[in-house]
Design goal:
By secondary structure, the chain is of the alpha+beta class. About 50% of the residues lie in helices and about 15% in strands. It is globular, with a radius of gyration of 21 Å.
Length: about 375
């Protein structure tokens, strides 16, 4: 993978920032299941909350490769904390850049550029997960040019702390469910918006996930993103554009686990020698390293394709299949590598004294959210067979 000098410099600066600000709190964030709000302004000042915002709107204007570097480096220490940077881009910046109008960009981006705004995306509902078209949350015209939202969403990342949420809702009931979804920017201070009890989870402790409810919540017309009925396309596209970052988070998590396993294997002694001298463990470590590197190549190749732009719809479709491959392959890899890291630690790996058990718990989510890995295999197969 080829990085520019600026990207090398960015990574070095980020590594120093992570050692100073992230490493010391990563374990406590998990143990106390506490959202590290103190990192929000620090991330904002580093540009990490608004990496995707173009320079013309006051942002750092990072491309997808740079965003993947940030995701990978942060996830080597904590996936929860990596997602504070990684997920914030798809709540407002990506939808408005690709589907919003200039008036919306001028209205929201100056605030986003300050690096204090947290955002979320709300697609999933209790009965509607992989089958996005079956969502029930409705947005009906209110006669004054706006919409009234009613319904609920679940598992929404950052819901309790988000300033704005891009919400997908049905604006019609005709035909195929995928043709009558629209996208709206919801200001979470709007009357009719409530957040439910935060979820307790297997991993990603410290990252707030909660259901949200819309009770006759009014959204002005100027907060609709794109055309009415364009929501399904918007939803799929922002997820496609974000998938390489989930791949990068998975690579970081796996690399963090591998580094910890190598260090432990060198230190731990059994049968009078370092366990790293046992060929059985050497082969495990070598396989882990190969898998991490293979996933890294796929993820950054995918980011490179995106950074070169999409001259046609066909080129975007090709990228979309690659993005699914990168997300699916890297997250399956991270699940395996983090599990193997726990194995190399033996009983100590099962204890909370070392980060590998956290890495293993956190790895599982990457196979589930942003489209389950079964859905990604369907996407890849569809592309192959089309
Ligand atoms: C921690 C966390 C954070 C999340 N954050 C957000 C968020 O911010 N915003 C948001 O909108 N959503 C979010 N989600 C929701 C997430 O995207 C969904 O959980 C995911 O898309 C799967 O949907 P589901 O849980 O309803 O599973 P289901 O769709 O019910 O799937 C159940 C099982 O069936 C399989 N399956 C379903 N359809 C098929 C098929 N056609 N072929 C083969 N297998 C199939 C799935 O792969 C899975 O194994 C989050 C979830 C979690 C756990």
């Amino acid at each position: 993978m080829h990085l520019s000098q600026d990207q090398h410099d960015f990574r070095d600066t980020l590594k120093r920032f992570i050692a100073r600000e992230v490493e010391p709190i990563a374990d406590a964030v998990d143990r106390e299941d506490r959202f590290p709000a103190e990192l929000v302004p620090k991330f904002g000042d580093m540009g990490l909350l608004q990496l995707r915002l173009p320079e013309e709107y006051g942002g750092p204007g990072a491309n997808l490769t740079t965003i993947c570097i940030a995701a990978e480096e942060l996830a080597k220490v904590s996936e929860t904390i990596a997602l504070i940077s990684g997920q914030n881009g798809i709540g407002l910046i990506v939808p408005l850049l690709h589907f919003g109008n200039e008036e919306q960009r001028r209205r929201f981006f100056p605030e986003v550029a300050k690096g204090r705004t947290l955002t979320a995306v709300a697609i999933t509902e209790p009965q509607s997960g992989s089958d996005v078209g079956s969502m029930k949350t409705s947005a009906t015209r209110d006669g004054n040019g706006g919409y009234i939202l009613n319904g609920q969403k679940c598992y929404i990342t950052f819901a309790p702390v988000a300033d704005y949420i891009t919400v997908f809702a049905k604006t019609g009931s005709d035909g195929d469910g995928t043709h009558n979804i629209s996208a709206f920017i919801v200001d979470t201070k709007t009357p009719g918006f409530t957040v439910g009890k935060a979820e307790r989870k297997l991993g990603l402790n410290g990252l707030p996930n909660a259901p949200i409810y819309f009770d006759n919540l009014r959204v002005p017309l100027e907060n609709r993103i794109g055309e009415e009925g364009e929501g399904f396309k918007i939803c799929m596209r922002i997820l496609d554009l974000n998938r390489p970052t989930i791949g990068a988070v998975s690579v970081g998590l796996a690399q963090g686990a591998l580094d910890a396993a190598v260090k432990y294997a060198k230190e731990r002694r059994q049968f009078g020698k370092s366990i790293s001298e046992f060929q059985g463990l050497q082969f495990m470590l070598a396989d882990m390293a190969m898998q991490v590197e293979a996933a890294r190549c796929l993820v950054y190749e995918c980011a490179r394709v995106a950074d070169e732009g999409f001259p046609s719809e066909a080129s975007f479709r090709e990228f979309s299949a690659k993005a699914s491959m990168a997300k699916c392959f890297a997250s399956d890899m991270a699940m395996k590598v983090t599990t193997d890291a726990v194995q190399i630690f033996g009983g100590a790996g099962y204890m909370k004294d070392f980060p590998v058990e956290r890495f293993m718990r956190d790895a599982k989510i990457n196979q589930i959210f942003e489209g389950t890995n079964q859905i990604h295999r369907l996407i890849v197969a569809r592309q192959l067979l089309s």
